[in-house]
Amino acid sequence: MILASARVETITKAQSVQGRSLWEDARRRLMRNKAAVAGMLTLAFLVLAAVVGPWLSPFTYDQVNKSDVWLPPLANGHLMGSDALGRDLLTRLLIGLRVSLAIGFVATFVSLVIGVAWGAVAGYVGGKLDEVMMRFVDVLYSLPFIFFVILLMVTFGSNIILIFVAIGAVEWLTMSRIVRGQTLTLKHKEFVEAARASGLHRGAIIARHIVPNLLGPVVVYVTLTIPAVILAESFLSFLGLGVQPPMASLGALIAGGASDMELAPWLLIFPSIVMVTTLMSFNFIGDGLRDAIDPKDR
Amino acid sequence: MLQYIGRRLLVAIPTLFLVITAAFFMMRAAPGSPFDMDRKLSPEIEANVLAQFGMNKPLGEQYVDYLAGVVRGDLGPSLKYRDKSVLDIVKENYPVSLRLGFFAIAIASVVGVSLGVMAALRQNKLTDNVVMTVAILGVCIPTFVTAPLLVLGIASKLGWLPTAGWNDGALANMVLPIVVLALPQIAIISRLTRAGMIEVLHSNYVRTARAKGLPEGLIVRKHALRAAILPLVSYLGPACAGLITGSLVVERIFNLPGLGKFFVISALQRDYTVVMGMVIFYAGLILVLNLVADLLYAVLDPRVRLA
Q1: pTM flag (> 0.95)
Q2: Which of A62, A283, B142, B186 has the lowest CB atom count within 10 Å?
Q3: Choosing among B10, B16, B19, B144, which should be mutated to test the A contact, i.e. which has the most A CBs within 10 A?
């Protein structure tokens, strides 16, 4: 009796020690990475500000105040000053951040769906189909893509949906390559063979063994794609092809600020700071995730 | 080797064809025409103008005509800049972009490799951390942020350099544009070099060199560096694509007479032939550079076999 309960105790103890999955391991490593944690906290703050901030502001992003034109920061209730039309910069910045983040997440999701589907099919099926599909990716890779995105925007006019699609359609290429490569190596790994030998059916092998191992590099690449997308959108907005006024995005605000910088440097400096902070926090998280999920690269 | 080059060039032809076709029909699908002006043209004049450029024919026929022209090396006349052919525009404006791009990539390579090696040799020490922080900053600060900030600080407030303009390629006018173009490349190159260097320094042949008693400086310069900068060769293609993208912004901010400035303006003005010509030119450039990068890689690294 006593012996049995002692045995139960040792078993539960052993399980509690054993019960650390790969993801739990990765999470611990990530939490020890100061830069990544700082990035996550900063990003959480930015997302919160972008979602909640505009509601708390006494101004709206497109509210023109004739009496408040070109106000420097802190004047007349405008914490970050105002622009040529007397619009409150902080409110516009929060809206711009919201738009940029939304484009970043949605376009990355588009690229994730296309890229994973394309890469996984090419990798699983293999053979001729694989060759054709990946050659197609190679061809697209060697194109000056920014020109096509610009042409798309010029052809169909700038609207937010098109920005999602255009940028997402550009960014899926690398994702598909990563997924295909990963699928190919996993297909022949010993643990997959062992699973197959022990009689596990195909769906379970994919779900239990392939996808979790595929997920690591994909998650890392997603966190690095989001800033790339935000950058691409800002680039378009800077050229006047992205988000149209009075709507704002970080790139549109920087473009506006750059043209008025002699007169009102705050219009350039604050959006630039927010842009760089956003991109950096994503990059820190991405680098941290890579180190955490794939420790052999350290 | 020759066979490989031949096959790559053969693949390049359908690629270019795809590019031309996509760009042609996208451009034509855009609303508006290059002859829209503030003053409405009378129907007769408009018909004349269209006929002059062969644009009264059905779209399919125009497409075939255009393709035939491209094969002959004729990119057609500009529809907006009177008396200039597209080739003239490329010839006149490309040297400016080329000069900026060349200096930017040269400076970025030297600075980036030096920083990367320094960081790798002092891995996880202060130097390494400083260099890597700068590298992350360089990746995260886009050209359209660095350019206006540098103009505001160095040119406007301090007055050390001109704020904009080309001035026939005077050195002072080129400094800021080149710095802006080079910064993100420096960041990426130093990261690549550091990663390559760290890997190579742990390799067996470096250990052998150390065991032979070679001085550390010689090992780094003669043995490790050569292998460590190999990944940079394959970065050549993407780097040029990055420079081209950057030039669109930089030439606009600094008001330089380069080719990049033309693309967006011409696309907005529906100058079909100029846009098409630039797409073909840049696509060809990137294809050639990618091929050169692959060949160089095979020459420098005997482990690579061209298949």
Answers
A1: no
A2: A62
A3: B144
